[in-house]
Each structure stands twice: as C-alpha cells, then as structure tokens.
Design goal:
Length: 282
C-alpha cells in the first residue's frame, strides 16, 4: 500500500510541476492585465524586476513595467568623444563600433545629440528611448521644489558645481523608482513628436504654466500668467508650427519652471544643444 501511495505522490508532483511550468509559460506571454492570479502574477512580476541590467531600475507601468537608466546617459569608456561638443562628435561616437551610452554616477551627461541620434545610441546599448508615458512614470516621486535649491537637490538653479553637472550629483534628486536627475541638469529626449501643434490626435495648449496633464504628464491645459502649485509651477514651452521633439524635465537654470510636468516643444527633433541629453529604457 505504501509503495502505491508513493507512486501516486510522485506522479502527482510531476503533473503539478508540469502544470505550473506550462501555466507560467502561457501567462508570461500575456499582458499584465491577465495576471490576475496572485501567485503566478507575483512570480512573473518579481522575475521582471530582478531582470533589469546593471545601471537600471524597475518602473511599474500599465503594460507590465520596464527598466530605466538610473542616471542620465553618458558616453562609455570606448567612445572617442567622452563629452561631445556638437552633433558631429555625437555622430562619431555612434558610428564607433565599441561606443555605447552607459548609466553610471559621477560622469558628465552625453549632450549635443538629436532625437534620432539619442534613439540610435540607446539601441547600441540594447535599449531604446522612453515614450512620454514611460519617462513620466519613471520621474514620479522626484522632489520638485520651487525655491531654496541646495547642492543635494535637483540642479535647476545652477546649484551644483558645474553646468551641466555630473550624474547623480543631487542625492535628493531621485524618483520613487530610484532614477536620478529626472528633473533639471539637462533636458531629456522622449521618443514622441508633435506636428503643427497636434500630439496623440489632440491639439496642444498654448505656452504657459501647466494646469492639467494627460497620463503621460503632457499638458492639456495651461495658464500663461499664473503658476499652479498643484503642478509645482512647472512650465510648458511650445512653438506650434512644424515637427517638434519632446524634451522633458528641464535643465540646470529653469528654476521652478523645471519639473516632471515641464515639457519643451521649442525645437525640432534634429536640434542639438549642451543642455539636451537623454536616458534609455528596456
């Protein structure tokens, strides 16, 4: 009798194990919305969190989460130009076989590159640029102060030792997910474009202080004269004609106008500048 029970127990364990593996495989290919079973959903979510590469942190998101660079992207050690001074030097970096952006502290951000170049640079690292929604999700929780910026805060009032400053210089400038410098230091490209004042099928508001946003933190209403404390006095800049690339977060001297709701649509996607950088997601 004991031998029979032992055989049944072993058979049951094998069947159960196979069932769990098959179920996990099926659910892993589904969207997060289908992960309603607490145990299996929890297992798959934990795997995703632990899968972020070095230099990245996990961000909870509507479609299952993603990894974001902890720091603004910097040129890797193999890049011929560690601090590109113009678009040509950024191009040289991108075309160099061993060059890819890195996410690490105490480095100068890689600036002076266009939207297209930033996307191409991220791809060389096996990553991509974030969308507006992803950038905003990664930035949530970053302290968005209006006055009194110190050396440990986000750099929005030339309050670090250099402009732009080295990555991770503001120990208090960190989001809930653990990403540094999402506000200030340098503007960051998001992989979205507005054309003739239209984005995502809707007309964008006029330039002004942010008073309402969509799920990606993109302004839907503004006030040209009155700052709104509900949106931390953040500001929306826009030229309404032609193609405009999305820059997020602000740079080192935007003061209270910088922030997680701050959006810059003044420049074309081909614009480059010392105050424009990027970070990647995966």
């Amino acid at each position: 009798m004991k031998k029979v029970l032992s055989k049944i127990s072993k058979t049951g364990a094998v069947v159960l194990g196979a069932t769990i593996l098959v179920t996990l495989g099926i659910n892993a290919s589904d969207s997060v919305q289908s992960l309603s079973r607490p145990l299996l959903g929890s297992l798959i979510t934990n795997i995703a969190k632990n899968d972020c590469p070095a230099g990245m942190v996990y961000v909870t998101f509507e479609n299952g989460g993603f990894c974001v660079d902890i720091f603004e992207a910097a040129a890797g050690k193999s890049c011929p130009n560690q601090t590109p001074r113009n678009q040509s030097e950024s191009r040289t970096n991108i075309e160099s076989g061993g060059c890819a952006p890195v996410s690490a502290p105490d480095l100068l951000p890689w600036t002076n590159l266009s939207l297209n170049q930033a996307e191409e640079a991220c791809r060389k690292a096996g990553k991509r640029l974030p969308s507006n929604k992803e950038w905003f999700a990664a930035a949530l929780g970053t302290p968005d102060r209006n006055v009194g910026w110190g050396r440990s805060d986000c750099q929005v009032s030339s309050n670090w030792d250099s402009q732009p400053g080295k990555t991770g210089s503001g120990e208090n400038c960190v989001s809930s997910a653990g990403a540094y410098d999402m506000i200030g230091n340098v503007w960051e490209w998001a992989n979205d474009i507005a054309i003739d004042n239209v984005y995502d099928g809707r007309a964008l508001p006029k330039e002004g202080f942010v008073t309402e946003v969509d799920k990606g933190g993109v302004p839907t209403k503004t006030n040209p004269a009155k700052p709104d404390d509900n949106f931390n006095q953040d500001y929306f800049n826009i030229y309404s004609n032609g193609a405009r690339g999305f820059l997020r977060g602000g740079y080192w001297n935007n003061e209270s106008a910088a922030g997680k709701f701050a959006v810059n649509l003044l420049f074309s996607p081909s614009n480059v500048g010392i105050g424009v950088g990027f970070r990647c997601v995966k």
